[in-house]
Structure formats: structure tokens, C-alpha cells
Amino acid sequence: AVANHITGTAIGGSAYAHGPNDTAIGSNARVNADGSTAVGANTQIAAVATNAVAMGEGAQVTAASGTAIGQGARATAQGAVALGQGAVADRANTVSVGSVGGERQVANVAAGTRATDAVNKGQLDSGVAAANSYTDSRYNAMADSFESYQGDIEDRLRRQNRRLDRQGAMSSAMLNMSASVAGIASQNRIGAGVGFQNGESALSVGYQRAISPRATVTVGGA
Which segments constitute the Trimeric autotransporter adhesin YadA-like head domain (predicted)? Predict the structure, then answer.
């Protein structure tokens, strides 16, 4: 075992502590960066991995401030943490509990309370349920509003159609009354007419007086 600095510690066959405040414990545990710790057989701390920790047989850290705990765990990015056998942390400032193809679940996680806390599945399910409930209520409210608006439009169209039909029936009645009055050859004439259109009906009555061979006055209504 070799410790190059007075503040370094190396214990175990071929253990190596390169610089100040280094600790290498275990057969072939090798620390090549300052302020780092390697515990376990064949653990490795690279020269650039200052302030790093590797624990567990074959654990490796190759970036500054990295942590690898578990047999064969590897931290390859700055500030990354690999937890568990074979775990790989290859993104800066992240925590990994597995590897590609060797994923793990994190169990018994308390509900987060702050913006930067992790959220557990219970919280996520509750949030999704609340969002769905809100969306459903808004959709139902919009649907009800649309149906009400649609009903109002349909009612207005029905009333408009009835007015048009009544107007058509009245026009027909007035036309028939005029024809009736015109068919009477006397100075004073009274006529009536009836008109129909789409179920609506109208009655018109008119009076006509001939005031000269060339002029008449007609009064009528429906």
C-alpha cells in the first residue's frame, strides 16, 4: 500500500492514495485525485475526480465530486451519484439507481412539499385526477352553455319561421280579399279573403267605394 502524502491513507494490497486527504482501503483500491476516498477491492478514482467517493468492489468515479456506491457502480459526470450494484450516473448533478436495461424503482418516497422535492406516484395520481375533474367540469359547463345557446337559436328560428308563415298567410288573404272586392260591380263593395301558409292562416276584410268612374278608395286589414 502506498500513500504519497502525510494526510493520505492507503490500506490493503496494492492500495494507492495519490495526494493529500486521500483514502484508499482495499486490495488494489486506487485514488489518483486529491481529497477523494475509495473503499473496496479494485475501486478506482481517476486523476480528474477530485473530492470523489467510490465504495464497493470495482466502483469507479471518473469526474470531480462524483459518488459511486455499490459493486461495479460508476459515476462518470461531475457531481453525479450512482447508487446500487451496476448503477451508472452519466449526467452531471443527477442521482442514478440503475442503468440502461437495469432500471430500479425508488420505493417508500414521501410526498414532496417544496418546489424542488420529488413527487411520488400518489401525488401524481391525485394531481391527474384533479386535472381531469377540472377539465370534465369545464367541458360539461361549455357543453351545457352550448346546448342552451343552441336551444335559444332554434327557438328564435322557429318563431321567425312562424312570423314568415303568418306574413305569407296575411299576404295571401289580402290578395284574395282584393280579388273578391274587385269582382263586385257596385259603388260600395265589401270583400273577405282567407290565406294559408305552412299551418298558419289569416282572414282579411276590406271595403271599397267608387268615388268616380276613375277612382276608388279601398280600406282593408288582415
Answer: 17-43, 48-73, 75-99
pLDDT per residue as tens digits for the range 36-71: 999 999 999 999 999 999 999 999 999 999 999 999
**Contact at 8 Å (CB) between 219 and 213?**
no
Selection from 217, 180, 173 nearest residue 196 by Cα: 173
Q: How many helices and strands (H and E) does the chain possess?
A: 1, 17
Q: Report the alpha-carbon distance of residue 161 to residue 117 in Å, rounded.
A: 64
Q: For residue 13, what is its C-alpha cell?
A: 494490497
Q: What is the DSSP letter of 111?
A: P
Residue 204 CB contacts under 8 Å (≥ 6 apart), including other chains: 170, 173, 174, 176, 177, 192, 193, 194, 195, 220, 221, 222
Between CA 36 and CA 20 the distance in angstroms is 9
* Strand locations in the chain (E): 2-3, 9-11, 16-17, 23-25, 30-31, 37-39, 44-45, 53-55, 60-61, 67-69, 74-75, 81-83, 88-89, 95-96, 188-197, 200-212, 215-221
State mean pLDDT over 79-89: 98
Extract the C-alpha cell encoding 78.
461531475
Question: What tens digit of pLDDT does each residue of 88-138 get?
Answer: 999 999 999 999 999 999 999 999 899 999 989 888 888 888 888 888 888
Q: Per DSSP, what are the bridge partners of residue 108?
A: none
